[in-house]
Amino acid sequence: MARVRIWIICGRKTYEVERVSEELGKLGVSHEVLRWDEISLPLDPQFTPDVVWHRYEPSVPLIFQFCVLEELERAGVHVINSKGAVENSDKASIYLLWQRHLREIVEMPETIITRDMGRALDFVKRHGVVVFKPLASGGGVGVRLLKWDEDIISRISYLLDKYGCILLQKFIPNPNYDVRSVIIDGRVVASFARYNDKDFRHNIHRGARGLRIEELKAWSESAYRCVEMAEVLASKISEITGLEMYGLDLLPGLDGSVYLLEWNAFFGFEGLEKATGFNVAGEVARYIVKFVK
Ligand SMILES: Nc1ncnc2c1ncn2[C@@H]1O[C@H](COP(=O)(O)OP(=O)(O)OP(=O)(O)O)[C@@H](O)[C@H]1O
Ligand SMILES: [Mg+2]
């Protein structure tokens, strides 16, 4: 039996998995979609692929996912994104890496990561309104606003109990949208805006509408500034983190500044493909097949 060259490892067949699989099919390279549950260690050396494209699954222990990635890397498999790059992409690492490498180039809202009630209270008092984010999340789940009011102590206690460690970030007033760019191999391949006037979170999963950058032109030049900033940051973030592909989220402030919100090692692109018609999955697939031996 011929060896399968490419594995897609995922928790479930999401839109992104289906689309990349479809595009790999069009390129005529053998590939297999495997669930994390279908992988046991040690791996069978006879059946390891050349390349793996993997998607994080929250219901599978992270340590298991990391063990699989490490072992694949030890076996000489090209893992996209590498374990090291994934470790550089949680929300705390993003802020710390920004501070070390990117602060001269782009702004990022002031952030604190803490387990200390006093430090958290000081931070909220100083800023008035802050955004709380779970350290590992996606789709805006768990992200909420905190205001300096009489309930603040009980709200922070609740979050410290629930998450063990909290990340608070200054809230940046904005024109109700942010800009998501997809970067592959250090290059911006596509961008679109996520507009939401019903929720401060601009995630598609929170009801945001995907808009082409040109559609925003009439009323917001800031969208262009975000795209220009994405072009500047694309290869720098790839170098700093080791990410071969990622989603970059930039937020325009009302004062004309552009803020870095985050980069996502496991970016969704359904909204982008549907809003722009751009074939993101095709770009991902073409990048993956470069590593088939
Ligand atoms: N500091 C901020 N000021 C204003 N709005 C913010 C701020 N931080 C986040 N937001 C809004 O909340 C949304 C969700 O935040 P964030 O992207 O950090 O979380 P997420 O759950 O990781 O989303 P993703 O699926 O992109 O990983 C952002 O897209 C943005 O619209
Ligand atoms: Mg986000």
Verbal overview:
- The protein is of the alpha+beta class and 293 residues long.
- It folds into 3 domains: 6-80, Rossmann fold (3-Layer(aba) Sandwich), CATH 3.40.50; 91-106 and 173-285, D-amino Acid Aminotransferase, Chain A, domain 1 (2-Layer Sandwich), CATH 3.30.470; 111-170, ATP-grasp fold, A domain (Dna Ligase, domain 1), CATH 3.30.1490.20.
- It is 37% helix and 24% strand.
- The chain has helices at residues 15-27, 62-74, 83-87, 91-102, 117-127, 152-163, 213-216, 222-241, 270-276, 280-289, and strands at 6-10, 31-35, 51-54, 78-80, 111-114, 129-133, 144-147, 166-170, 177-184, 187-195, 209-211, 245-252, 258-264.
- The strands form 3 sheets. Strands 11-10-9-12-13 form a 5-stranded antiparallel beta sheet, with helices on both faces.
- The longest helix has 20 residues, at 222-241.
- It is globular, with a radius of gyration of 20 Å.
- It starts with 5 loop residues before the first strand and ends with a helix.
- The model has no long low-confidence stretch (mean pLDDT 95).
- Magnesium ion binds at residues 249, 261-262.
CATH class of the largest domain: Alpha Beta
Low-pLDDT segments, ≥5 res: none
Which second-level CATH architecture of the largest domain applies? 2-Layer Sandwich
Number of strands: 13
As laid out across the biggest beta sheet, the strand order is 11-10-9-12-13
Secondary structure: helix percent: 25-40%
Treating each run of at least 4 consecutive H or I residues as one helix, how many helices?
10
Ligand kinds: adenosine-5'-triphosphate, magnesium ion
CATH superfamily name of the largest domain? Answer: ATP-grasp fold, B domain
Reported for the largest beta sheet, the result is: 5 strands, antiparallel
Rg over C-alpha atoms, rounded to the nearest angstrom: 20 Å
Shape: globular
- Average residue-wise pLDDT: 95
Which structural class do the helices and strands define?
A: alpha+beta
What distance lies between the first and last C-alpha atoms, to the nearest angstrom?
17 Å
Q: Which series of helices and strands comes N to C? A: EHEEHEHHEHEEHEEEEHHEEHH
Q: How much beta, percentage-wise?
A: 15-25%
